[in-house]
Amino acid sequence: MPRTGRPRSFDQDQVVEGALELFWRRGYTATSLRDLKGELGILPGSLYAAYGDKHALFLRALQRYVDASREQAAEVAVEGPVLPRIRELLLSVLEAAQTTPGRGCMLGNTAAELLPEDQAAQQLVHGGFGALENGLEQALKAAQRSGEVRPDIDCGAQARLLLALMQGLHILARAEADPPRLTDAIDAALAALTVQHETDHSARPSR
């Protein structure tokens, strides 16, 4: 009779989720097979049989994070008032810094640790950032059509600026004793999308 093999005694979906949390918290290099065994409760042999190696499992975990980023982007781009949703997205960075301090953004963490040498990780990081940028751009275009934001802004450039702000908040919030203090930076960025700034001619020196 052909060997059917013994069914795995662990849930692969839960393993990937657990690996995501561990890699997100500690980073790729600092996470050892012993750490994975202790966190996930599976032997290295089972890990290799199911995923290939640590790097392959990391890519699976990173893919899950990218998928979540795509969902975030889609939520921002749905119909309705846009700026409150963008504000909530940015505020969620500060909230995460309080509830799960030290994690930051896994896309940014991976970029800082592994790029550009790890091309497989680079593709995933690029895809995650691209999804967020595209979601923000589409949301801003919708807001522009509805009159929620200024008609003269470049939605693509502003989407990249908001993405850069989001990543900056991840870094600053990790070092900030009071992350909500950074809320004014979020409000200032969004105010610039709705307020037409006029040049103060009175400030020019007279000739």
From TrEMBL:
Which ranges carry the HTH tetR-type domain?
9-69
Keyword Calcium appears in the UniProt entry: no
The record's annotation in PROSITE patterns points to: HTH_TETR_2
Q: Which Pfam families match?
A: TetR_C_13, TetR_N
Give the DNA-binding residue ranges.
32-51
**Organism per entry:** Actinomadura rudentiformis
Gene3D superfamilies documented for this protein: Homeodomain-like, Tetracycline Repressor, domain 2
What's this protein's name? TetR/AcrR family transcriptional regulator
InterPro entries from the entry?
Answer: Homeodomain-like_sf (IPR009057), HTH_TetR (IPR001647), Tet_transcr_reg_TetR-rel_C_sf (IPR036271), TetR_C (IPR011075)
Keyword presence, Transcription: yes
What is the taxonomic lineage of the source species? Bacteria, Bacillati, Actinomycetota, Actinomycetes, Streptosporangiales
Q: Which UniProt keywords apply?
A: DNA-binding, Transcription, Transcription regulation
Which GO-annotated molecular functions does the record name?
Answer: DNA binding
